[in-house]
Write a structure and sequence with these properties.
It contains three helices and three strands, in the order H-H-E-H-E-E. By secondary structure, it is of the alpha+beta class. The chain has one domain. The longest helix is centred in the N-terminal third of the chain and has 13 residues. It is globular.
């Protein structure tokens, strides 16, 4: 979770809009985000003012939870 100062600073940095939109919709619908590539999510998770659950779909046909859903 970001404090006020970090929130203002991050507002001037470029953001991955599709990932941010996906995070907002996941929160609105109370769903986890399912992805095959976790690399874009740490930055998005850091910037969102709320926690989201991210689940990675691996090649082994299993789901691996990468962050808890609250």
């Amino acid at each position: 979770m970001l404090g006020k100062r970090e929130l203002y600073e991050s507002a001037n940095e470029p953001i991955d809009l599709p990932a941010a939109h996906t995070g907002a919709v996941a929160r609105y619908l109370d769903w986890e985000i399912i992805t095959s590539n976790r690399s874009r999510w740490p930055d998005v998770e850091r910037r969102l003012p709320f926690p989201v659950g991210v689940v990675e779909f691996t090649d082994r046909r299993t789901l691996r939870t990468l962050s808890p859903t609250l």
